[in-house]
Amino acid sequence: MYYPYLRGKQNELILLRENAELISKSQISPIIEPVKSNLNPLLKSFRVLISELCSFSIIINPIYGDFSFDNTALIDCLNEEGILDYENLNVALICDEDTDINTLEKYIKDYPDNNITLIHYGFTDGRELEKLLSNFKNQFTHIFIEKFAQKRYRRIFTKDKRILIKDGFNKQKSNKDYPAKEHFSELHIMYEDENMDGFGDFLINGDEYSESGGPAYAVAIHLTYLDEDDEDDMFIKHYISDSNSSPADPGGKFLEALTKLVNDTDPKVFASKAHQEFLKLAQRQHYPGLGYVKKLSMQHHLESIADFLK
Question: How many CB atoms lie under 10 A from the CB of residue 113?
Answer without folding.
Answer: 10
